[in-house]
Design a protein that fits this description.
Structural class: mainly beta
Helix content: under 10%
Oligomer: single chain
Strand content: 35-45%
Radius of gyration: 25 Å
Number of strands: 43
Distance between the termini: 33 Å
């Protein structure tokens, strides 16, 4: 496992990790090791050494690691016993590296201790060029690393298209631009360039076919690294990503941002059903190889992981057929990925009858423990944690719901489904039981609902139910899969539970995009359709306890520059839902005015809506994933 600290749910992302893992920083670190006389003594006042060495291309010879805090003396750091900084003058080193950024003051203190003839340098040698820093006065400002990875492909008749908006402008950013680097499947750099971003909240589109044509590239299936310079408010690049086929290939799917932080494990990966292949796209997020054996798959709950016996080069992408490591595993069994912090949230691809659909796995938390307080939440919080999932019109679509363990300590999932018509009326409850970690349960709504119920669609909410015991930690997840009854097309998405729309709060719930809880407002991004595919959203108004009887929801159409050009208003019943196609509410002229980079914002100041979005075509193809807000 990489000896790095990435994401902490309480403290947020580790800026140091991003500063060292950035592709340009990795190149600079490699150059630094190559030119420094060795052996090297590391001055590690800021606890950087382990991550620096773990992420370093090359293998520098380290003679010792020196610390300032006496409480750390003798502790192990990157395989070395921490020594007192005062011993540095006796180090048998030809170079001394102060493992700190903005290290001028530290450098002045350390200079008298440097062994005679040794070279003294700091990590300021490897920081990003100043033109790529939002705040050049402070290297480890989180806004200097508004970055993310994108699964990006233009290969074998399949294309990808990233869509987002300059949401940083809403937080005061005045001049944003994107620095991009495209890696092919082997990890080789295909192209590096910059893209201007509209000065206001304009739309952003990056199309794989256009990138290939622009740089005269061969086909590729790899990853695109994004870095937003001049960002404000958010240090993650949020986006929606469509994958679609050309000609006879009817593939169509969507997914969203990669979450930016490598994790030990990921879950929510379905085993293949009959006639399916499930390919897990393992994309190395770093400039160091993933060692043979570091990537492992396990049948969820089996605790018998099978290791990939080959190395994955830096920034390379491997499409791993899960049946290679787990032969005989079948839906509705689930798969866990153990990857030792080498990859950000991976995508998986399900191939069936010549169609491919892409979805994402989710971070499996290692920092959670069961919390008995969840079973005793007070009545003011009503049903507590809810996980809303859409049910597309049952006359045309089949819906399956599969709870997914998403923390390493989750041994049980005591859950039920509450099912609602669009008008908020509850039509059914279905207790799934106190599921075990290794369960293989996927609920087909056809098996529990009579014909005619939810004929025009609705939604379900997965929630805790402790009638048969069990434990909870608040990190409840599920996969929802929709299948078109005649075309054979399918799509799926997964997400986690929250407490929704209560004035009373519990810890950080109901979550808010900005400020403290409760989160009682909505700002969701909805891309527009293209090439004959219609954009749609399913908006769900979940309420843990009674809230406003109806929402006051606005669908605002923006053009490519981010200027609002039209608005439609809706009222969604509490515990209800609504499926919306923008082209049914805005004229053809307005849609043309929005243009290729136009989009919709969904705004509501009365409640928090949960949304799913996708595209539909006339042949029964469709995509589905949960929406993002900002």
């Amino acid at each position: 496992m990489l000896d790095i600290t990435t994401f902490d749910a309480r403290a947020g992302g580790n800026v140091l990790y991003k500063a060292l893992a950035h592709p340009l920083a990795a190149e600079a670190i490699e150059r630094l090791w190559a030119r420094l006389p060795q052996p090297i003594a590391l001055v590690d006042i800021d606890d950087v050494a382990a991550a620096l060495l773990a992420l370093s291309p090359g293998a520098p010879r380290i003679t010792g690691i020196y610390v300032q805090d006496v409480a750390l003396l003798g502790a192990s750091r990157a395989g070395h016993r921490a020594r007192p900084l005062t011993d540095l003058k006796r180090a048998e080193a030809r170079s001394v590296l102060i493992a700190s950024f903005d290290a001028g003051r530290i450098e002045a203190r350390v200079q008298p201790l440097v062994p005679r003839g040794a070279t003294l340098v700091t990590l300021d040698e490897v920081r990003l060029p100043e033109r790529l820093l939002t705040n050049p006065r402070r290297t480890l400002d989180r806004l200097n690393y508004a970055t993310n990875f994108v699964f990006f492909r233009e290969q074998a008749g399949l294309s990808t298209r990233l869509v987002t908006a300059n949401y940083w402008s809403g937080y005061g950013a005045s001049a944003v631009r994107l620095w991009l680097r495209l890696f092919d499947g082997s990890g080789a750099v295909l192209a590096t360039w910059e893209e201007p971003v509209p000065s206001g909240p304009g739309g952003i589109v990056i199309d794989s076919a256009q990138v290939r044509a622009r740089f005269g590239l061969p086909e590729f299936a790899g990853q695109l690294f994004l870095h937003a310079i001049g960002a404000a408010g958010h240090d993650v690049v949020k986006y929606a990503l469509d994958t679609f086929g050309h000609g006879a290939d009817a593939s169509l799917s969507c997914t969203h941002d990669a979450n930016a932080w490598p994790s030990d494990r990921y879950a929510g990966i379905p085993a293949p059903a009959s006639g399916e292949r499930v390919l897990l796209w393992v994309q190395n997020s770093h400039a160091v190889p993933v060692p043979a054996g570091a990537i492992q798959l396990d049948r969820m709950g089996a605790e018998r992981p099978a290791a990939l016996p080959r190395e994955i080069p830096p920034f390379a992408s491997v499409a791993l057929d899960v049946s290679e490591l787990l032969p005989g595993t079948r839906w509705p069994e689930q798969i866990e990925l153990r990857c030792g912090r080498h990859v950000v949230r991976p995508r998986y691809e399900v191939v069936r009858n010549g169609r491919a659909r892409i979805a994402h796995a989710n971070v499996e938390r290692a920092d959670l423990r069961p919390d008995p307080a969840i079973a005793r939440l007070p009545p003011e919080l009503g049903r507590g944690f809810l996980l809303p999932v859409p049910v597309l019109p049952r006359l045309r679509f089949r819906t399956l719901i599969q709870p997914t363990p998403m923390a390493t300590t989750q041994a049980t999932l005591p859950v039920r489904l509450d099912i609602f018509e669009r008008d908020g009326s509850k039509v059914a409850e279905h207790f799934l039981g106190c599921l075990k970690r290794d369960h293989a349960v996927a609920v087909d709504l056809d098996d529990i609902l009579p014909d005619g119920v939810l004929a025009d669609g609705g939604h379900a909410e997965l929630t805790y139910d402790f009638r048969d015991g069990g434990e909870a930690d608040g990190w409840l997840h599920t996969l929802v899969r929709a299948e078109h009854r005649t075309s054979g097309h399918a799509a799926e998405s997964s997400f986690g539970a929250h407490i929704f729309n209560t004035l009373m709060t519990w810890r950080d719930e109901p979550q808010s995009y900005s400020g403290p809880p409760p989160g009682l407002s909505t700002r969701l991004f909805l891309k527009l359709g293209s090439d004959g595919r219609r954009s749609f959203t399913v908006l769900i108004y979940p309420a843990s306890a009674p809230w406003h009887p109806h929402s006051s929801t606005a669908l605002v159409l923006h053009d490519g520059a981010g200027t609002p050009i039209a608005e439609a208003r809706f009222a969604i019943a509490c515990s209800g839902s609504r499926r919306i196609f923008p082209d049914e509410h805005f004229s053809a002229a307005q849609m043309r005015a929005a243009g290729a980079r136009g989009y919709c914002l969904i705004r509501d100041t009365t409640c928090r809506l949960f949304g799913y979005h996708g595209l539909m075509d006339a042949q029964g193809g469709f995509s589905l994933d949960h929406m993002f807000g900002f």
